[in-house]
Amino acid sequence: MQIHHEPLTDVVRYIEKCRNIDLAEQEPHFDNLLRCIRRFRQVDGSLNMLEVGTGMGWAPIIAKQRGLRLKGLEISPLLVEAAREYGRKYGVEPDIELGNIEEADLGENVYDVIIASSVFEHVEHWKRGLRTVYRGLKPGGLLFFESTNKWSLVSGEYSRLPLYGWMPNRLRYRFRMLVQGPDIMENGIDFHQFTYPGLRRAFREIGFTRWHDRVDLSDPQVIRNPIRRIVLRICKKSALAREVVLTFFEVTTFVCEK
Ligand SMILES: C[S@@+](CC[C@H](N)C(=O)[O-])C[C@H]1O[C@@H](n2cnc3c(N)ncnc32)[C@H](O)[C@@H]1O
Hints:
By secondary structure, this protein is α/β, with parallel strands linked by helices. Helices cover 40% and strands 17% of the residues. The protein has a single domain, classed as Rossmann fold, CATH 3.40.50. The chain has a 7-stranded mixed β-sheet, with helices on both faces. It is globular, with a radius of gyration of 18 Å. The protein starts with 8 loop residues before the first helix and ends with a strand. The mean pLDDT is 96. Bound molecules: S-adenosylmethionine. The site of S-adenosylmethionine has 20 residues, from strand 2.
């Protein structure tokens, strides 16, 4: 992947869609993400955190408002600027650097926490990016990873088409180029539709010592929907039920420990 300074169609569309969203609407997503991290580590201003792929900068902006240290790394110059402009509306200057996680040098043993939310599906050489993340984490550091799930019935990447993620990569790319223009391949395409087993293999191969999936991270006591609560309890007891439910879940979510 490359850094593109020209306005790419999907980036412009994303900014148009997101620039008027109220920051408060993004707080539950950020809280949810922090809840996953807090299962393993107290989150306060002493942690050195990084978000890869910041989009509109919601996470670094909310974090700064709360006195947390969360830097950003973002491949799109337009989005770096859009996030700064968005932050100004709330009196916050987010600390976001321009860079590509496939090539960036995050240093070694630098971060306590790295967040990659809805990003790695867009990183063409994703294992290279994941190795960079691993290297950048301190021993015992945590990666919050959330991305696509291939067998989900509906995909956030293209929710108008059921079973979108089931398509072979080449067909998916062609379809998106047809519908959204060829420059979707420069930023916006989901190069990857991940699976839980595939990701576990990759985390092991890269060197993470432990990884906790969506079932591990969810607490039945905070789930309001009674059916979901029962299903979660079953999944926590039965490995088979866990795999079946995770296969069709909307997203892949993990917290990995270095
Ligand atoms: C779908 S947005 C997600 C934004 C944010 N993380 C969120 O959850 O709202 C994906 C972001 O990742 C960025 N991105 C894609 N590939 C990247 C790469 N190789 N390095 C850094 N950022 C990347 C995109 O430009 C975009 O801002």
